[in-house]
Amino acid sequence: MVLAERERRPPTLRPSEPPTDPPSDLHTPPANLGAMERSTQQTVLIAVTATGFLTAVSTSGVNVALEQIASDLGLSAVSISWVTLSYILATGALLMPMARVADFRGRVLVYNLGLAGFALFTLASALATNAAVLILTRALQGVSAAFLFSTTVAMVTLAYPPETRGRALGLQVAGVYLGITLGPVVGGIITENLGWRGLFVLVGALSIVNLVLPLRRLRGLEWREPKTAPFDVRGSFAWVCALSALIIGFSYLPTMAGYALIGAGLVGLAGFVCLEIRAADPILNINLLRHNRVFASANAASFINYSATTAMAFLVSLYLLYNRGLGAQTAGFVLVAGPFVQAAVSPLAGRLADRVEARFVASTGMALCAVGLFAFTFLTETTPYWYVIVVLCVLGLGFGLFSSPIIHTVMGSVDRRYVGVAAATSSTMRVTGQSFSLGIAALVLAVVVGRHEIGPADHVHLLSSVRITFLIFAVLCVIGVLASLVGPGRRHAKPREEG
User: Fold this and answer.
1) Using only C-alpha atoms, what is the Rg of the chain?
2) What's the CA gap between 154 and 48, in Å, rounded?
3) Partners of 224 in the β-ladder
C-alpha cells in the first residue's frame, strides 16, 4: 500500500511503512493506523457516512414519488421499476472495475470524483422532460455511485484499527439507514408540496455541500496500491455486458428477447470467470472465492439478502399508493418505521460483531428478514396499517442485525492486501443483489399486471404481484440463513492466505 501526503499538509501517516505487506490479516493493525490523527479518522467517517445518507435518501425518497413521476411522464408499470433499476444496475455493473481504478489511482480521489458526479446528475434528473431522459440521468447517477461505493468501505476499514472497526462500520451503515428512514418522509413532504423534481434538487444541493466541506481536511490523505499489471479491460467489459444483459433480460421476460438476453448474460458471466482466472490483475480475485469459504459464503449471503429485501420498499410503496390510495406524504410516514429500526440497531450490531462471531449476528438478522417477508404475503386491501408497520419493524430489525456484521465478516476474512478487492466484492454483491431484487419485481409486474400504465382495474393484479414477489423473497432469505452461518468463526480460526 502506498500512502501519499501532499507537502502543504503536515504528514499524519508514517512514511516508513514497508512497500510490501506482511503476511498478516486485517486483525493485525498496519503501522499507519496508530499514527493517523483521530480527527482525520473522524473526518473520513463523517464524510462517507454523509454520502451514504444522501445516496439512501435519493433512492428511498424516489419510491414515494413514483406515482407522481408516472403520472407526469406517462410511465408504465415496468417503466416505473426502471426509474430505480437503472440507477442500481449502473452501480452494480461498474463497482468492481472502479474499485481497481481506485486501488492504484487513489481511493480519496475516486471518492471525490464520484461525489461530484452524483451531485451533477442528481440535479440533472430534476430537469428530465420525459421517461428516457430520467432513466438516463438516473443511470449516470448510478455510475457516480459506483465511484462512491467502491471506496467508502475500504476507506473506513483502512482508517480504523481492528478493535474499533466494527463500531465505525456500524456507524457508516447507520448513516445509510438514517437516509432510508428519512427518505420516504422527506420525499413525501417535498413531492406533495414542491413536486418530485424538488427532491432531486435538494439531494443534489446537499451533495455539493458534502463534497466541499471535507475536501480541505482530506486533500492531503490518500490510499493507493502499487500497480503491478495493466488494468483488466477485458474482464471489466465482460462483467458490465454480462450483468446488464441479465438484469435487462429479467425485465423483458417472458418474451423471447428476455430469454435471449438472460442466456447471453449467463454465457458472459462464464466468460468473465475464465478471463479473471487468467488475468494478471483481475477486478475479481477468483481465488478468494475458491479457497476462502468464509469470504465466499458471506458474500453469497449478502447477495441473497439484498436480492430478497431491496424491492421491499418499492413494492410496499406501490401497495400504499395504489391499493390503499395514500398520498406520497402519508405513505412516507408509514414506510419510515422499518428504516428507523435499522438505523437504531445498526451501530449496536456493529459493536456486537466486535465481541462475538459476526456470522451468528448476521444469520439471526437474515432469519428475521425471512419472517417479515413471509408476513407480507398476507397483505390485502383491508390489512390494518399497524400490521404493515409491525412487519416493517421486524424487517428493519433483521436487516439492521445483518448488514454491518456481514461486512465485518467479509473484511475480516482476508489478508490486508486484499482489502480493496474484498470491499469492492462485498459492495458488488450488495448492489448486484439490489439489481436482481428489482429485476424480479419488474418480472412479476410484467407478467401479472402487464406493461401498460397502471389503472384502477389493475389494482387487484398489482396486489397479487406484490404478494407473489414477497413469497419468492421469503424463500430466498431462508436459503441465505444457511449461507450466513458458514464458519470457521472469526475468533477461532486464522484467515487463509489467498493468492
Assistant:
1) 22
2) 11
3) 2
Coil, helix or strand for 122?
Answer: helix
State the virtual CA torsion across 464, 465, 471, 475 in degrees, nearest 10.
Answer: 160
pLDDT, tens only, 415-453: 666 666 777 777 778 777 877 887 788 788 877 877 666
Q: How far apart are CA 71 and CA 267, in angstroms?
A: 38
**What's at 27, amino acid-wise?**
H
CB atoms within 10 A of CB 254: 9
Question: Coil, helix or strand for 219?
Answer: coil
What is the spatial distance between Cα 284 and Cα 290, in angstroms, rounded to a whole number?
12
Closest by alpha carbon to 313, among 51, 58, 59?
59
- pTM for the full model? 0.65
Nine-digit cell at 26?
Answer: 486485517
Going from the C-alpha of 118 to that of each of 86, 179, 208, 211, 372, the distances in angstroms are 14, 16, 9, 10, 33
Please return the burial class of 7, using the count of CB atoms within 10 Å of its CB with bins 0-12, 13-18 and 19+.
exposed
Q: What is the pLDDT of residues 88-122, one digit of tens each?
A: 788 878 877 887 777 777 777 888 888 888 889 98
CB 89 within 8 A of CB 435: yes
Owner of C-alpha cell 389494482: 459
Q: How many CB atoms lie within 10 A of CB 217?
A: 16
Nearest CA to 428 out of 81, 107, 146 is that of 146
How far apart are the C-alpha atoms of 449 and 459, rounded to whole Å? 9
DSSP conformation letters of 245-278:
HHHHHHHHTTSHHHHHHHHHHHHHHHHHHHHHHH
- For residues 338 and 396, the answer to whether their CB atoms sit within 8 Å is yes
C-alpha grid cell, residue 130: 420525459
**Number of helices and strands in the chain (H, E):** 21, 2
3-class DSSP state of 2: strand
pLDDT digits (tens, 9 = 90+) for 278-303: 877 777 777 777 777 778 887 888 88
Query: Cell match 456481514: residue?
Result: 406
Pick from 426, 441, 425, 427: which is nearest to 476 by CA?
441
- List Cα–Cα distances, 221 to 132, 210, 251, 361, in angstroms: 40, 17, 43, 34
State phi, psi for 47 to the nearest 5 degrees: -65, -50
Instruction: Please list, in sequence order, all residues whose beta carbon lies within 8 angstroms of the beta carbon of residue 299, skipping any fewer than 6 positions away.
Output: 289, 410, 425, 426, 429
With cell 414542491, the residue in question is: 194
Q: Distance (Å, rounded) from C-alpha 423 to C-alpha 151?
A: 8
